[in-house]
Write a structure and sequence with these properties.
alpha+beta, about 30% strand, Trypsin-like cysteine/serine peptidase domain-containing protein
Length: about 230
């Protein structure tokens, strides 16, 4: 049915959201021109983390992207394009494939200087499983005028980790999602700071909602900040 196809788990807890402050200004609607719409998050002055499925294959050229901070019925802040992107070499299938199903774009403008950006961390199973402490934000096309305004969900729980892929694992959650949210951030607030734990990997599963994340994503955030200051 429709709810299963768009992966709403029980009650739809997504809320239409319109706040022009951090951290929401650091979350971007991604337009892959002629291909698809995704969501993503600034993790550096010009680094955006999103799903691997929102990025071209390695060596693919001639692709046009637009990154629009906190899009709301149109662009309300300066947008940016892409000059490069990074994806990890896939090391497995199943849960391990999900864990590494992310990409980092390098932008042609330092949007993070004005919009802010997130840190990145690995999940601590001892303190963060089943804790209803995570947030998600994105542009679902099944809600909010076809993805013209963002939705926010709070009190999301990471209910399990994928097996054999620690530290970090693939993250199984009870988040609600739909097309357009792919690549959107799963984050938590710690001591007033926002930390990314994963990006939405699949917006259609009906049993749980998976996020890609873990040690390799955290390391890539650090490295891309160093390589593309």
């Amino acid at each position: 049915d429709l709810l299963a196809e768009r992966n709403v788990l029980g009650v739809d807890n997504r809320v239409n959201w319109n706040q022009t402050v951090y951290p929401y200004n650091a979350i971007v609607k991604i337009e892959w021109v002629g291909k698809k719409l995704c969501s993503g998050v600034l993790v550096g002055p010009r680094q955006v983390a999103t799903s691997r499925q929102c990025a071209p294959a390695i060596g693919q050229t001639g692709q046009t992207f637009k990154f629009m901070p906190n899009y709301y019925f149109g662009e309300r802040y300066p947008s940016a394009g892409m000059i490069n992107w990074y994806m990890p070499t896939m090391v497995g299938f199943g849960d391990c494939g999900v864990k590494d199903d992310w990409a980092i774009f390098i932008l042609n403008a330092r949007l993070g200087d004005t919009m802010g950006y997130f840190g990145a961390k690995n999940l601590d199973p001892a303190t963060q499983l089943n804790g209803a402490q995570f947030f998600n934000y994105g542009w679902p096309q099944d809600r909010s005028a076809g993805g013209m305004q963002p939705t926010r969900q709070e009190a999301i729980s990471v209910t399990a980790l994928g097996t054999g892929c620690e530290p970090g694992g693939s993250l199984q959650t009870n988040a609600d999602s739909g097309p357009g949210q792919l690549g959107g951030p799963l984050w938590a607030v710690e001591s007033g700071s926002r930390y990314l734990y994963g990006v939405l990997q699949n917006e259609y599963r009906s049993d749980y909602t998976p996020f890609a994340g873990g040690d390799r994503l955290v390391a890539a955030v650090i490295k891309t900040r160093q390589d593309f200051p």
